Automatic annotation (TrEMBL):
Its main location: membrane. It is found in: Cell membrane. One of its GO terms (cellular component) is plasma membrane. This is Inner membrane protein YabI. The keyword Magnesium does not apply. Signal peptide: none annotated. Residues 31-157 form the VTT domain. It is a multi-pass membrane protein.
């Protein structure tokens, strides 16, 4: 739950704080952006700040943060490629993940903005490292951020009187989503390894 100091900062510098929070959360910094937006929406309902100004600031910050994470991955990949020499198995998994991201990347980016929002920053990095075309990445990112920003600010605005309970529920749901996403990722890696093992078995010469 947000403390009083954060609420005072929101009242004094609402749009700027919201911009900074959504931007930094999209480059994987540990900022509770969803909870801050809930609080900002509640303060807007109380008349302490303009709702539409918050909405625009949060949305612009989120989209620019997505672009920054995408670009950062491109820069860092070039710097690290010469120093890191992955083994054959890691290289195969990376290539398969890249292929799937390019094949279904638009849907993946879109869903990671709101349905799987804890994974959003890492999808940004993966999209940049995989060289997903910006014309595919940006529309999916922008569309998904509309839902994420609108949902949390809107819920905070509508449920201002019940904000403590809403933030508690939101925290629990975010944790469940993250756990489910991690479990899916583990299953995906195991599936790839099992498939490669089967291919190696099929390629062995018969005695």
């Amino acid at each position: 739950m947000m403390n009083e100091e954060v609420l005072r900062l929101l009242v004094s510098y609402g749009p700027g704080i919201i911009f900074a929070v959504t931007f930094t959360s999209c480059i994987a910094l540990p900022v509770p952006a969803s909870l801050v937006m809930l609080g900002a929406g509640a303060l807007a309902a109380a008349g302490d700040m303009p709702f539409w100004g918050l909405l625009v600031s949060a949305y612009v910050g989120a989209v620019l943060g997505d672009i920054a994470g995408y670009g950062l991955a491109i820069l860092l990949e070039g710097a690290l490629k010469d120093r890191l020499r992955p083994g054959p198995r890691t290289l195969a998994l990376t290539q398969e993940a890249r292929r799937r991201l390019l094949a279904h990347g638009g849907k993946t980016v879109f869903l990671s903005r709101w349905l799987l929002s804890p994974l959003g920053p890492y999808v940004n990095f993966a999209a940049g490292a995989a060289r997903m075309p910006m014309r595919q990445f940006l529309p999916s990112s922008a569309a998904g951020e509309v839902i994420w920003v609108g949902f949390y600010l809107g819920i905070g605005h509508a449920a201002a009187r019940h904000l403590p309970k809403v933030t508690e529920i939101a925290s629990n749901v975010a944790g469940l989503i993250l756990a489910g996403a991690v479990a899916c990722g583990i299953l995906f890696v195991l599936h790839l390894r099992l498939r490669r093992s089967r291919r190696r078995g099929d390629s062995l010469p018969e005695s």
